[in-house]
Amino acid sequence: MADTFSLQRVLETFRSSLTENKEVYIKYYIAGWKELVSFMNSLGNVFSFISKDVICKIQILENFLSGENGSHYVTIQSMVKFELENELVDLTKRGSHPESGCRTLLRLHRALRWLELFLERLRTSAEDSKTSVMCSDAYSESLAQHHPWLIRKAVGVAFCALPGRDTFFNVMNAGDQVQVVALLGESLPLISEVYQITEDLYAKNNLLELP
Ligand code: 1PW
């Protein structure tokens, strides 16, 4: 994992994650998340409880990928097919498969929607906009609906400690604000496409509410 975040690399990993027939490579999906973790880490310690959970989920998926059934975990599509056909997913209550690939990836998938909404707000924000407000608005619209009260509170506290808009733009490491905005404009449709493909796949298989 590189320590210095670069928005350009996020763009590249999400671009690499799409196969020719629009499936999603788990390897690159994870790589994209690793970049985002390094982004969160550069925003300060307040985000460490959030990045810890993401790192843990990345690790679960990496273990599947490098495990004996690794060949079934090449794309999200092949993972869903493999785990469902072999009854490796707890569908209604956590039981014998509490950490399936499907439920683990679903958590990252929901968080990706937050990220997408937040980056879109950042991209179109005015100079005096507050990152904490953009972050929490994006959060309420997406991920918060899947989090219990305690987590929502803790996430809210982390948002309050976020650095300002200028720092965000600097941390993205992609030139001046005009260049960052342009790169965001290029990255967001890709992130959004990966999100939508996953969403449709999960919806089709009734997996959007996995416990
Ligand atoms: C500034 C850009 C940051 C974008 C990264 C977004 C990551 C959001 C992750 C929030 C995690 C909060 C703490 C953990 C909560 C877990 O309970 C939750 N995990 C997630 C990723 O939502 C649900 O996982 P669980 O408990 O069902 O295993």
Automatic annotation (TrEMBL):
Chemical reaction(s) catalysed: N-(9Z-octadecenoyl)-sphing-4-enine-1-phosphate(in) = N-(9Z-octadecenoyl)-sphing-4-enine-1-phosphate(out); N-(hexadecanoyl)-sphing-4-enine-1-phosphate(in) = N-(hexadecanoyl)-sphing-4-enine-1-phosphate(out)
Domain Glycolipid transfer protein: 26-173
One Pfam assignment: GLTP
UniProt entry tagged with the keyword 4Fe-4S: no
Domain of life: Eukaryota
Subcellular location: Cell membrane; Cytoplasm, Cytosol; Endosome membrane; Golgi apparatus, trans-Golgi network membrane
Membrane topology value: Peripheral membrane protein
Alphabetical keyword list: Cell membrane, Cytoplasm, Endosome, Golgi apparatus, Lipid transport, Lipid-binding, Membrane, Nucleus, Transport
GO terms for biological process, alphabetical: negative regulation of interleukin-1 beta production
GO cellular component, one term: endosome membrane
GO MF entries: ceramide 1-phosphate binding; ceramide 1-phosphate transfer activity
Family listed: Belongs to the GLTP family.
PANTHER family tied to this protein: CERAMIDE-1-PHOSPHATE TRANSFER PROTEIN, GLYCOLIPID TRANSFER PROTEIN-RELATED
Name of the protein described by the UniProt record: Ceramide-1-phosphate transfer protein
Source species: Phoxinus phoxinus
Lineage, top ranks: Eukaryota, Metazoa, Chordata, Craniata, Vertebrata
